[in-house]
Amino acid sequence: MARKTKRKTKRKLAHPKLPMQRQLNLQHEGTHFDLRPIFERLNERYFRRRLRGYKVTWGRRRKHRPREQFIFGTIQEEDRVIRINPALDQPFVPPWFLRYVLYHEMLHSVVPDKTLPGGRRRVHTEEFSRRERKFPGYLRARRWEEENLARFLR
Ligand SMILES: [Zn+2]
Q1: Which residues of 6-15 are buried (b: 16+ CB within 10 A; e: fewer)?
Q2: 31 C-alpha to center of ligand 1: Å?
Q3: pLDDT tens readout for residues 19-65
Q4: Which domain holds residue 15?
Q5: pTM exceeds 0.85
Q6: Domain total for the chain?
Q7: How many whole angstroms from 115 Cα to the centroid of ligand 1?
Q8: Cα 107 to middle of ligand 1, angstroms
Q9: 22 Cα to the center of ligand 1, angstroms
Q10: CATH number, residue 70
Q11: Are the C-beta atoms of 58 and 35 separated by less than 8 Å?
């Protein structure tokens, strides 16, 4: 049972600050999904085009699937790069799920983080969750995530 609780997405670790060296080779076009038009539509519909100068790209492919933790996406605000896990570029992934993943990352750029007592940073604040739940299809996406997470893990 311990294993089951561990096999969850750890969203608080989903936004590491990555070093600059991964700037090269930014690719938004995957085999099944092109991230750019998805980003543009979300930006227009939910953010009044507030996200400017962002690059959106598939992340680097890994040799192995992770064992316990799958990171769907990350955002680096200082460089304005949103990276989506290339494991999502597969035909079994519904487009509406990918939209949700992108929306989640984009939301980070408009909802400020909070610093907790002790200096820890909290990115998924109450305000963040409130706005995230307003995304149409949020519940469907979370359910799909839960039901399909094992396909992304080893
Ligand atoms: Zn997040």
Answers
A1: eeebeeeebb
A2: 25
A3: 544 444 569 989 899 999 999 999 999 999 999 999 999 998 888 88
A4: 2-152
A5: no
A6: 1
A7: 15
A8: 8
A9: 20
A10: 3.30.2010.10
A11: yes
